[in-house]
Amino acid sequence: MRRRIALVTLVVDDYDAAIRFYTEALGFRLAEDESRPGGGRWVVVEPGGDGPGGGLLLAKAGNEAQRARIGDQTGGRVGFFLHTDDFARDHARMRAAGVTFLEEPRHEPYGSVAVFEDLYGNRWDLLQPAAD
Question: pTM of the entire structure?
């Protein structure tokens, strides 16, 4: 049996702003956007590419406790990891799209990496793993 994590929920304050950021700034594709009863939506964005990988379920905060978590779902730690096969290409494209990087690119034994923030301040690694 093959298993994988299919989706991770990311709490957002606005569906359309989140969709724009993830599709335009990060280059994800909008995989699903369906209306739900009560004004909610089922919104999934995926980074695309070959091979197995998960998507993000963009979930609009429904109460004050959820709103308080927007942008700080991991307590200030890097909580999301976007792998790429061409670090320089994606780093340049993301910077040109206005993505905020918190550091200059680093070249570590495990690969090329730079921390960036999403629309809400969640921290991500853009990472090109080192070749095996």
Answer: 0.91
